[in-house]
Design goal:
Blueprint (H helix, E strand, L loop, with lengths): L1 E6 L2 E3 L5 E9 L1 H4 L2 E7 L6 E7 L4 E3 L7 E6 L4 E6 L8 E8 L14 E2 L3 E5 L1
Parallel strand pairs: 2-11
Antiparallel strand pairs: 1-3, 3-8, 4-5, 4-9, 5-6, 7-8, 9-10, 9-11
Length: 124
């Protein structure tokens, strides 16, 4: 089992930046090969936005490339998401997720095994 706790969300103005953090605990060695960020806006489906393997291989949704940067610190059991140039369209609940394996090309599908409770990002 893995527990994930997100933090760093908040209310910001258009053009602002945020740095989200996800801290993992539990049986991480086998279960956090892949860690990823998803978001879900009201009335919309959950969207995968960035993922990273434990070897640092990253993947981004086209909609966030150039503005979002995903990173992880395996020693600290932490996943990060730097978000720049925020717009109101980025308003959503942001979730951290993890899994022990993934089919290449499916890193951003919302069917990973472990999920956090989310942190809200609101842009006005």
């Amino acid at each position: 089992q893995v527990q994930l706790v997100e933090s760093g969300g908040g209310s910001v103005q258009t053009g602002g930046s945020l740095n989200l953090t996800c801290v993992a605990s539990g049986d991480m060695y086998r279960n956090t090969y892949l860690m990823a960020w998803f978001r879900q806006a009201p009335g919309k489906q959950r969207e995968g936005i960035a993922s990273i393997t434990n070897r640092g291989s990253g993947n981004y949704a086209e909609s966030v490339k150039g503005r979002f940067t995903v990173s992880r610190d395996n020693a600290e059991n932490a996943l990060y998401l730097q978000i720049n140039d925020l717009t109101p369209e980025d308003t959503a609940m942001y979730y951290c997720a993890a899994d022990s394996a993934v089919v290449p090309g499916e890193e951003l599908l919302p069917d990973l095994n472990y999920w956090g409770q989310g942190t809200q990002v609101t842009v006005s």
